[in-house]
Amino acid sequence: MKKNNLLFCFLFIGYAAFAQTKTADSTHHKRFEKLKPFLTKFSIGLPDIHFEYCVPFKKTGNENLPYGMDKYFGVPKSETGFDFPFGNNFNFRIIAIYYKDKLGVEFYYGGFGGIVPMNDFAQYLEKKYPNHYISDDYSIMNKGKDYDFKGVQFGITYKIHLKSFIIEPKFKIGFETQYAYNYEPYVFKEIGTNNFTEYQIEERVTTRKPEHSYHAQLNVGKRITLFKRAKRPFTFEAGIKGEYIYAPYSLNVKVNEHTYGMPIVSNQFDITNAYKMYSFGAYAFYVIQKRNKKPSVK
């Protein structure tokens, strides 16, 4: 994972250096020259690098679910997020286009969510099936329950230039798919007998597809330009960010208990709720904008 992160950073830096060192008569330069009429009023923000810490809300709204599901659908643990899907939280901005370096539109592919530790759920099962062996207690304690949303996001943003800083409020709407997970059943064996019981949880997404998510974000950054006297200066923006995510969802959950030789007992119910989290971190991206004019020779 760390190697992939470093590789992406080197590729980003390499691309910037490549764009800077190309000569004026190169094909690469000519392609950039075609953007001149567009860049008189518009600037382009390329895919950004960001690193953030994602914190789900502690109150999930699932506290009163029956059959131990209040613990199974409990509070996800906090985790870090990066551009590419190295975890549940990633936020890859494909491109941003700004009009007069103020009003902008953005296009993202991202994901968010978290993993619920299974400690509390494992304790629930131990109390429910006392004097039983379990087939795979390691799986319960380490696999975890995923909240997993992935899809495209579209945003509108406005840059406020305040002296040398940029304050940028954003609002994004996401069109994600929530992934439901149906793990293999847990098998319990009663000590001293040959009685076995299977316990399985099945999930089915009942929300419209794709689901909608709503994101409020605030960036505070600074525009930095290197090689200012060059015909092709290198400009990037870096700063800190904060984001709030609200994602309504609906699941149908079925809990099956099957003691061998007996009929299956099924309990089924719906969960209508919203996944809520906030994140904070840092970001940076390369900016394509109008270049300096070639200095006149006297």
Concise summary:
The protein has six helices and 14 strands.
What does this structure look like?
Mean pLDDT is 80; it is low at 1-25. Strands 1-4-5-7-9-12-13-14 form an eight-stranded antiparallel barrel. The protein has one domain (2-288). The protein is built from six helices and 14 strands. Strand 12 and strand 13 (234-259) form a beta hairpin. By secondary structure, it is an alpha+beta fold. It has helices spanning 2-21, 27-33, 36-39, 69-72, 119-128, 137-143, and strands at 42-45, 49-56, 79-81, 90-99, 103-116, 132-134, 145-158, 160-162, 165-178, 186-190, 196-205, 211-226, 234-259, 265-288.
Write the layout of secondary structure elements.
Elements: H1 2-21, H2 27-33, H3 36-39, E1 42-45, E2 49-56, H4 69-72, E3 79-81, E4 90-99, E5 103-116, H5 119-128, E6 132-134, H6 137-143, E7 145-158, E8 160-162, E9 165-178, E10 186-190, E11 196-205, E12 211-226, E13 234-259, E14 265-288
Antiparallel strand pairs: 1-4, 1-14, 2-3, 2-14, 4-5, 5-7, 6-10, 7-9, 8-9, 9-12, 10-11, 11-13, 12-13, 13-14
